[in-house]
Amino acid sequence: YHTSVLTGHGWVTELLNGHPGHIWTELGVNKRVFVKLIDLLETNGYTDSKNVSIEEQLSIFLY
Fold first, then answer.
1. Domain ranges of the chain
2. Does the predicted model carry a pTM greater than 0.70?
3. Which of 1, 12, 16, 35, by CA, is between 20 and 30 Å from 54?
């Protein structure tokens, strides 16, 4: 359940650096899988948009 006061990049950073269970609860994947998905997306040419990082984009998709 989303209880953070942070939004956007700050929220994603909190998920990645916080308790391992939080990223699972919020996004349904563990940190290792999330990082691997980012790597796969970047390998296939995906990049940050003007205002939204690739990490945020993936988080929005998974949420």
1. 8-62
2. yes
3. 1
Question: SS3 letters for the chain?
Answer: CCCCCCCHHHHHHHHHHCCHHHHHHHHCCCHHHHHHHHHHHHHCCCCCCCCCCHHHHHHHHHC
Give the tokens for residue 63: 């949420």
Q: Mean pLDDT for the chain?
A: 91
Q: Which two tokens stand for residue 23?
A: 């990223």
- Using DSSP's 3-state secondary structure scheme, residue 51 falls into coil
pLDDT beneath 70: ranges in the chain? 1-3, 5
Contact between residue 15 and residue 22 where contact means Cβ atoms under 8 Å apart: yes
